Amino acid sequence: MSDVLAPPERCDVLVVGGGPAGSATAHWLAAAGRDVVVVEKKTFPREKTCGDGLTPRAVKQLTDMGLADRLAHTHRYDGLRAVAHGITLELQWPSHPTYPSHGFVVRRRELDALVADSAVAKGAVLHTGTEAVRPLQRDGLVVGAVVKDKETGRSREVHARYVVVADGANSRFGRALGTARNRSYPMGIAIRTYFESPLHDDPWIESALDVRDRQGRSLPGYGWIFPVGDGTINVGIGLLSTFKGYREVNTSHLMAEFAATAPSYWGIDPDNPTCAPTGGRIPMAQSITPKIGPTWVAVGDAAGSVNPFNGEGIDYAYETGRLVAELLDQSLADGDGMALQRYPALVAEEYGLYFRVARLFSVLIGNPAVMRELTRVGMQSRSLMEWVLRIMANLLRDDELGPAEAAYRAAAALVRVVPEPAA
Q1: pTM value > 0.70
Q2: What is the rounded distance in angstroms from the CA atom of residue 406 to the CA atom of residue 401?
Q3: What are the backbone angles phi and psi of residue 331, rounded to the nearest 5°?
Q4: 228 Cβ contact partners less than 8 Å away, ≥ 6 residues apart
Q5: Given this structure, which CATH class describes domain 187-281?
Q6: In this structure, which topology does domain 5-74+108-183+284-354 adopt according to CATH?
Q7: Where is the FAD-binding domain positioned along the sequence (predicted)?
């Protein structure tokens, strides 16, 4: 059918994207009684390139949404198994007054549908297979979007008092509003696939901090193996743009070498993944600006809300979505957008120091020689690695900030004594 403009739809808030950030925003707005419409260009369930691991921060957000019972049917894990330089350390998630001491591994095709369904159950309207093709603007303000049903080809307008940009790392809708990545910030590159494994329900997610190819040569980045609990494991490898020459890195080669050299106890056939590897690039550390206009706001990956320490973005997607929902609810109640304008300051207050340290640290680990030295030293000390886990997962208690800063200073000191790798 031709691109015929249908009658407009109206709502308080239009959410562009039904992934973690968009669905969380819709959940909390609908729970507050607001009229919310979500448009998602794919149809659930849909695959998404991801490690599938939920940290304690993400588990808290899902529990607060009332989804704890649904998570109980997925694979729970207790902590991280770090592997490097012939040493293996099993590190439990730390106790924390706010966050649980466990995580879950849930395929994104199931997780994203679960949260989107929760938003619908609260009263949100969800249109899948529907793409927001361009913003609607009036008198300099964003007042909605033109959306297109991908099956019928029909377009229509959705009018809204506010628009939430949640269409992911490659946010086309955000770019149409002028958002852009600060290229001085790190960006992540990752690739993953799945393999059948007898340890599919292992209680640890695993991180390989010293990745080597079949000839024993060091490879850039770090690898992960996350047991999914359904007969498969999620296997992937990632690196940061702070690695010199990252543009020339062949991620398919990295994936093949990592799978071929994975520890034998996983029992995988490296030549027979259950699906083709998929990958992508991820803006990190709140690198996307601007995050807000008078009547629009960006959340989750569309705002660069990804942790540079470990590439984790689901928890920050849920958290920024919830924060924006609260601010939009207040803005709608007040009849103006002043509450929403607090968003950048609140994000800076919550994540600014942490992400700033993470950005600096990403420069250190972008140097392979420094990365090897850090992991060599770290793997000699369980207590140090437990601190590293707390710092990387952003699970420090307020009374632990001092030791965290001391640990970072120690890491920074290594940079001055480790030589640059030969050209």
Answers
A1: yes
A2: 9
A3: -65, -40
A4: 52, 75, 105, 107, 194, 200, 234
A5: alpha beta
A6: FAD/NAD(P)-binding domain (3.50.50)
A7: 10-267
